[in-house]
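Long-time lurker. I teach an intro course on protein structure, and each term I like to show students one example going from raw sequence to a predicted 3D structure in token notation. This year I'd like something fresh instead of my usual example. Would anyone be willing to generate the tokens for the chain below so I can use it in lecture? Attribution to the forum is fine with me.
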Amino acid sequence: MNILIQSATIIDAQSPFNGKQVDILVKNGVIEQLKKGIKADKNTKVISAKNLHVSAGWFDMQANLCDPGFEYKEDINSGIQSAAQGGFTHVAVMPSTNPTLSSKAQIEYVLNKAKGKIVAILPIGSISENQEGKDIAELYDMHQSGAIAFSDDKKSMKNSGLLIRALQYAQLFKGSIITYCNDSTIAHDGKMNESATSTSLGLKGLPALAEEVIVQRNIAIAEYCNAALHIGPISTKKSVEQIKEAKKKKLKITASVNAYNLLLDDSNLTDFNTNCKVLPPLRSKEDIAALKKGIAEGTINCITSDHSPEDTESKNVEFDMAAFGMIGLETAFAVSNTALGKENLSQLINAITVQPRAITNQAPVTISEKSLACLTLFDPSAEWTVEEKNIKSKSKNTPFIGAKLTGKVIGIINNNQVHLNS
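-- Reply from a regular --
Happy to contribute to a lecture. Here you go:
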């Protein structure tokens, strides 16, 4: 397949064409030419659009595709459609399936089901067996089978000794460990951010302290082990400060934030919208300001979708009973871009291209001649309204339906395939 992308502004700090407007000729999945004025022959598909920007293919480090076990919420095929719609060429999937991704066989199941698709689905294995927080899972076997990292997803690790052993073991084969931080004895079944809003709504609060004490503990454990550790998603000002201090000490700490935590605060819950019930919870405007500054300064490395599909029966209930989570693959870029503004576009693209690949030890992707064409096409200034009828995910649990966002995906090119949004 031959493709000519016309008059595209390149956003790729690793490319010699960064910031330049050029044509891109792709032949058989490889970037053949990068220059102005390329002529297309009759066998070439031409792509052109107003204010067209192109970056390396976007990589989401935190998504749930619910497959196997919960395919009524999402499956790998519908998740791929959702990811392509949202501009992602690579999606790392969490192990919260049934059965959990805790063995070689489960890792291979995910890879085989997604093989050859336009979006690469990259499995993350669980740290502990069945995410129970008791015994270490088969980390090396999963790594050998293609697991790109290890995490117990939103099950924060209570057992400090287990985390130490996992970090020490993973170092032997350069495995990446990802930890979510939430002390359940402090969170104590909280439903939203502990604040004046939670008090006024009569909802049990989830204190920022529950996150922050585990962030501090996990940093201390990583320092003790002299090991790399990814912390996320984080949501509070103090968590940002703690990670900044860890980086000043040259510790091997990286961090991520969910896109929705950059735009929505806990006041969005005043109408008891269960689609705003998420983990980590929507925090204060002060926390949002700190998170955005953390992205701009490089303290926070990655922005993630935290795509968490839930069926109607899990969300259309009383707030206390509703499941946590919202879908995010199709809106993550636009939500982040709306929150951060055009002055932070380069940092945003870095946070969804370069950083997640580096953290999970994946090969870097750049826009240069003779490189494989792994590209996302987008208009960072286009405004659009989220409509339920256009959502590709099986689930529709998002508070952004009807919202106007800035930054629209035009399409993706990957694995010698092209997807263009209508």
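Some talking points for your students: The CA atoms of residues 45 and 217 lie 53 Å apart. The two ends are 20 Å apart (CA to CA).
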